[in-house]
TrEMBL record:
Listed name of the protein: Septum formation initiator family protein
Keywords: Coiled coil, Membrane, Transmembrane, Transmembrane helix
Annotated TM spans: 43-62
InterPro entries from the UniProt entry: DivIC (IPR039076), FtsL/DivIC (IPR007060)
Keyword Membrane tagged: yes
Length: 140
């Protein structure tokens, strides 16, 4: 143990040569270390910026995809409603053409309002009610 202490003391007692060349080499090494530290710092900041940008772009894409899906759903629903309205419009147009026909109007009036032509006799036949059918089914 005493031998290790003596060697330590000897190495700390060694003086370095303090010449211009040695100082220049030491300064160059210090500049290189400082440059390396600044480089690592710049790379770390740049890496953080890249990660933050990627997260921002990813979240934007996710929200846009979600919005696009909602818009597509609304579009599909609107197209279904459009088809229904177009079918209803066709039915109404067909009904308008029928209502312009005098024979159809006369037939409709005879059916709905029990109107008759000269010499006709109208017989009203009662239609079976759902209640009547239920009563019969319950009794049997």
């Amino acid at each position: 143990m005493l031998g290790a202490r003596k060697e330590k003391n000897k190495s700390s007692q060694i003086a370095s040569i303090n010449t211009d060349y040695v100082r220049a080499v030491v300064r160059k090494e210090q500049r290189q270390r400082a440059h390396r530290v600044r480089l690592y710092r710049r790379l770390a900041v740049f890496g953080i910026l890249v990660v933050l940008t990627a997260i921002g772009i990813g979240s934007m894409m996710f929200s846009q995809t979600k919005t696009l899906a909602a818009i597509e759903q609304e579009k599909a629903e609107a197209l279904e409603r459009l088809e229904e309205v177009q079918e209803e419009q066709e039915i109404l147009k067909h009904q308008i053409t029928k209502l312009n026909d005098d024979e159809y109007i006369a037939k409709l009036a005879r059916k709905e309002y029990y109107l008759s032509e000269d010499g006709e006799i109208i017989f009203a036949i009662p239609e079976k009610d759902k209640k009547g059918k239920e009563n019969k089914d319950g009794k049997e």
